[in-house]
Specification:
Layout: H1 2-15, E1 19-21, E2 25-28, E3 32-35, E4 44-48, E5 53-56, E6 62-63, E7 66-70, E8 77-81, E9 85-88, E10 93-95, H2 130-141, H3 157-164, E11 166-167, E12 170-175, E13 182-184, E14 195-199, E15 221-225, H4 226-232, E16 236-237, E17 242-246, E18 249-255, E19 259-261, H5 264-280, E20 291-293, E21 303-305, H6 307-316, H7 321-334, H8 340-343, H9 347-356
Parallel strand pairs: 16-19, 20-21
Antiparallel strand pairs: 1-10, 2-5, 2-9, 3-4, 5-7, 6-7, 7-8, 11-12, 12-13, 14-15, 17-18, 18-19
Helix pairs in contact: 2-9, 5-6, 6-9
């Protein structure tokens, strides 16, 4: 029922688009709050809904990642977090119609984003390496908020990915892993014709399925074409193979009998998601103990490979603003934990570098 409602909502907007024009303003992308101060725990002065319009104050300046705004109902000045709104400048016309943007024109690595790591988040990691650093990071990122894989009544993984992987400037679409294609966010699975949820750490390499925890952790879940997801299956990651053609679309990914190689622009993303999983899940509290191996054919062990390839990919495809933005959204709006290897890429070599080089 929830998915039917979402589809009906999108169709309604497509049939009855509307436009508004303001001097400097923001349009709310999802339910949110306007607060007295630019702080996460500040007092709420107004609750706003998706589609509400806010007047932007202070020439668009930000504090702690919050915009200073005037709310639509109370007309009081307050603060709203930047990932919850879309900004429009003077004389810009905004529309909720899906025709307002062309997803083929979006280059996500060019988005503007300044990530702010919370003060003190990585306290205790200075001068640590190897197993000591791995344990310290585990203690920092464990205990996060967990969500259902699918739910008709509460926030689920579909909802999280629609925000975390939302196409910049084109919120009706999500960016797909492996192909960089854009897909209408309302097409949830759609009988295999829409997009699906790819477990980058294949769920069969840990026997966690889609249960809360590893099975629903958004730091390694990404939207993907159902057909591409199926082609990757549960293969380990490594270089080599022949290009996978999805229908008549050249994906830039390669595969052979035992491995999958993403296109170059996705390699670092994949590597850092696997590094995160190997740190976050250490076997405590009935969670799987996930580790990286310098080999392929690791199924059905609680392993994923190939470590040497992942280390090279981490260097080949450095962290970009798309990953930083995604990391911030998952931390601030949903799980409350971060991927340390996006914030501090140097942690990778400090933990695993000596095992390979």
């Amino acid at each position: 029922m929830k998915h039917l409602y979402r589809l009906s909502y999108v169709l309604l907007l497509a049939v009855f688009p509307f436009t508004v024009a303001f001097a400097d303003y923001l349009v709310v992308s999802r339910k949110a709050t306007v607060k007295e101060q630019p702080e996460k725990k500040a007092k709420i002065i107004e609750r706003v809904q998706k589609g509400d319009t806010l007047t932007l104050l202070d020439n668009g300046s930000q504090q702690n990642g919050y915009y200073h705004v005037t709310g639509p109902k109370t007309n009081k000045g307050g603060w709203i977090y930047r990932t919850l709104v879309r900004r429009y400048e003077e004389e810009t016309i905004a529309t909720t119609s899906s025709s307002a943007c062309d997803p083929d024109d979006i280059i996500v690595t060019d988005i503007e984003w300044t990530s702010t790591i919370p003060a003190g988040y990585y306290d205790g990691t200075a001068n640590l390496t190897g197993a000591e650093l791995k344990t310290s990071l585990y203690n920092i990122i464990k205990g996060h908020m967990e969500f259902n894989y699918t739910s008709s009544t509460s926030t689920d993984v579909w909802d999280i990915l629609k925000e975390a992987d939302r196409a910049p400037g084109c919120p009706e679409y999500v960016k797909l892993l492996y192909t960089n294609r854009m897909r209408n966010a309302a097409e949830e699975y759609n009988y295999g014709k829409g997009w699906t949820r790819e477990h980058v750490w294949a769920k069969s390499h840990g026997d966690f399925g889609t249960t809360k925890g590893a099975g629903t952790d958004a730091h390694h879940l990404r939207p993907a074409d159902a057909s591409v997801n199926s082609a990757r299956n549960n293969k380990d990651f490594d270089d080599g193979g022949t290009e996978y053609i999805d229908g008549d679309y050249p994906t830039g990914c390669k595969r052979d009998v035992d491995s999958w190689e993403p296109q170059d622009s996705e390699k670092g993303d994949v590597a850092r998601m696997l590094f995160y999983m190997a740190v976050r899940y250490e076997g405590e509290n009935d969670e799987p103990d996930l580790e990286l191996a310098d080999s392929v054919n690791t199924y059905p062990a609680l392993l994923h490979g190939k470590l040497s390839a992942l280390l090279q990919w981490h260097q080949l495809d450095p962290v970009d603003n798309w990953e930083r933005r995604r990391n911030d959204i998952i931390y601030t709006d949903f799980q409350g934990n971060r991927n340390p290897f996006i914030d501090h890429p140097e942690f990778v070599d400090k933990i695993w570098g000596n095992q390979i080089y």
